[in-house]
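Predict both folds.
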Amino acid sequence: MSGLNAFDSALSRVRSAVAAELSDRRRMSQLESNAPLSEANERALAESLVWKELDLVARSRASKGDAAFDAATEELILERVIADLFGLGALEYLLADETIEDIFINGCDNVIVARSGGARERVGRIAESDAALVELLNTWASRLGRTERRFDTANPRLDLKLPGGFRLHAIMEVSPRPTVTIRCPRHTKVSLGDLVGLGSMDQHLADLLGAAVRARCNIIVAGGTGAGKTTLLRALIHEIPPEERLVTVEDTSELNLGMFPEAHPNVAELETRDANVEGKGEITMAQLTKECLRMSPDRVIVGEVRGAEALAMLKAMSQGNDGSMCTLHAESCRGVASRVRGYCAEAANQLPMPVIDGFYRTAVDVVVHLHKTLDRRRCISSLVQVTDEGTDGIKYNDLYVRDGNGRAQLASLPGGLLRERLVAAGLDMDRMAWLLDQQKAMASAAGGPR
């Protein structure tokens, strides 16, 4: 602990000792009574252990000729230890700040927050040392989430859902210092109308997307990191009738539909599980995506497709689970197919690309792409209809394309069966045609197509 001041050194010592003792007591309680200690009992035990350790600290300082901490300092150490072990420590004041959208921790004392609107600033240290930061992450990993997770040399990466729906990713060993990224979604219950108000799309595009959900179209939401994919997915889910059974599959729970039972009471939320210390018990996204098909879902919703689960998702979409949705990282609507081909290639059965393309054509109805504009605002940039014409490759109908400001602009009307389904779901196609004519007239008056 060289380089730490007296307070930080004492804090680190007390917290480590109390965390270790609590861990031992939990194991003993589990073995002896097959039941965990209640949180109230753990807190009471932790407080008594803190005072015991503070007494040892006082004796150690006295033996070295150092003055004892005053009562206020000891109370502060108690509060910090309890906050670190049962809350989120110094993170709590950052997570409570409604203007913060992302937190970047590049070592304990290099903490940067990104605020709504794009502003970034450096804030105070999050722990007294990198070792203390790792210790905190391990403590949170052991008690947060559906299953216990570990963060150590043998398991140097961690994905964790924090209270409030915030998503934490941490990694160590492969970087000079432990690195933590926390996404802080503030719109956990959001509608398409809300996104119109935020400037993410126009009302006529929101009308089309709402009709696509009601028409049980299979939708892929694509975009880069932080583009707003999960927020749009939540808004699309908001359009699903409450009587439908939804099954969600996520690596780390983020959609949190169970928080709003009045909107969708019949929800099953599935989350992956890491292997145990023996390397057994792992449950992957691909396994869960297959498993959910046995749960009689009306719709399957995959939080983020990024591996072999893509094939199971396409099968779900094309085998009776119409209206399913997922998100996926891609740089454009058309780039989604290439990503899906690559992900399907990871599956064990090694299907030929023409077969994968056939699955894609018959499964996917609409792909919508989001991005961040130059002023760092999230918006929809394009939307395509995937057509099922022919048997060679994948063909598209560009319904919305990116305009000069990076926002989605109406380019053509839906065709074929999709058009019929959207009209039946309440979309005013005549108004869309009028808007398209108006747009073309404005472009012509301005000197040609935009």
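Second protein follows, with its predicted structure tokens after the sequence.
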Amino acid sequence: MKLSRRTILQGAGSLAFAVANFRNDALAQAPSAAQSPEVPPILFVHGNGDYDALWMTTLWRMESNGIARDRMMAINFTNPTARTDDTVEEANRSSTEDQRRELAAAIAELKRRTGAARVALVGNSRGGNSIRNVIKNGGAGDVSHAVLCGTPNHGVFALDDLLGSEFNGRGTFLRGLNDGDSEVTPGTAFLTLRSDGMDKYAQPDGRFMGKPGVPTNVTAEGPELKGATNLVLGTIDHRETAYHPRAFREIYKFIAGREPARIAITPERTVRLSGLVTGAVDGVPTNRPVAGAVVEVNYVDGESGERRGVVHRSTTGADGRWGPAAVDSTLPLELVLTSPDAPTTHFYRSPFPRSSDVVHLRAARPFIPADKDAGAVVIMSRPRGYFGLPRDTVLFDGQEPADVHPGVPTDATATLRLPASEGRRNIVAQFNEERIVARAWPASENRIAVAELTY
């Protein structure tokens, strides 16, 4: 499909998520839409340094529109972080060729599992680089649709130095992908989704790459491709180009050929959770499994954050998997991860409306010098987007976080440090309509609390 017209989808603020704090009667609502076998299997591809768990809410929305879970897959790249120079080996980081090989193998596995001749690929950020690479280099016959969400198709910067960087629009890798009158591979339908100026990796000034005042030679239009359908989703941020409900609508519509029956997530009566414990190696995040980690799941009170009962406890084996845990879909949770050589991390989460096998856990970062005098450290984290001020309502312990910068959304975490005298009190993390109540834990016990937003 080729469209030269640019469509701008207007709408202010974040869409209210429809499943937070829902009552038991919500479970009686209509079941998911009828299954749609004509929709090709879908493979989701995460971005730089990330993991497949970020697609959890997208998978739920797909399921709520009748896409069977076994016709979807989300890849987990072994070493998700790019090399500084794509041509130079770097420990615990991956080259574009590493990612191409892993993605090609995942495509073959999804085709084998479903019996389909072709699959649809959906990628965020660097994941779009891998998608374009696999399609251009022999994989076009396997891919019916390619959706690139916030992918820096013309670079995060386009400069005459750092030519080995995967993210340099003038570098070898991107010049190879963008060579020719059309920037897409014939035979595959391409869609790009981008922000209207709020993507920190599509900015004309280098301040977001540590070079304020230096022109990047990249604009907000950088993610667009000649020959693709190019859509602008409004003032969403870099990650929201993939994980926001507005992005879901366009992803579904492009692949299925029709509007989704619903945007809200349809709750399930029985919810089972499981996932993978991963860790960083020498400070670099990886998706390698961690053995010997203990995962405990507790119900907590929605107003105080106090525990209301243990649901599950298990120790990971060589595969790093934990679970499954059967949980009540109306109750918030505390997931405690005790992982070797890392702080014990207390994750506080909103109720899970549906089952998921990608509830992955990485221990919180180690204590840093700024934490030295803190009695407790609490982190507010939004993995599927950034905090935008004044775009969003962001309150942490009743105040806007001082470490969240206004303007273009750049921060996915905020940190609160409490004196030891305040004890294990509760901390409220509020992002638009999602509200999480966490408890502070003593830093002296090597513990960190994380209020992790789902939406």
